[in-house]
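Protein modeling request. Please complete all fields; requests missing the sequence field cannot be processed.
Requester role: graduate student
Desired output: 3D structure, token encoding
Chains: 1
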Amino acid sequence: MRVGLYPGTFDPITLGHIDIIRRTASLVDKLVIGVAINRDKGPLFSLEERVSLIEEECAELSEETGMEIVVHPFENLLINCARDVGASLIIRGLRAVADFEYEYQMVGMNRQLDDEIETVFLMAEAQRQAIASKLVKEIARLDGDVSKFVTPRVNTELIARFSE
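Delivered output (164 residues):
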């Protein structure tokens, strides 16, 4: 069984993330979505909320693609998380050249830590490439419409969070 790890903070999960998850189904039998516990970023949604949203959004996708999807919070090194879940691939989504420069450095470091684990880069579909969780949160915070960037459930959660 080929296991992939797709790490991120997913604060919140966007249609860009879901696009990458869907397209990963042709690469792996099981996808572990690693939800980073990154206290320094000060996430809008708690870890439990992010995990719940991802599980809900991916349940149908798992059935549709036949790929097993598991959500796994982690706070250790990415390469150690990959080992912990038995992943042979790390899946990374790219949006722009700036993403590539950072990811290139990460791949180099991860290869030094464990050269058995490969990193695969996927570009989101063209209409989804500009979507970033940070921008989605900013638009929602300023009472903008983010329905083109997130699922209806996530949109509802964002509206509720910013109306508090």
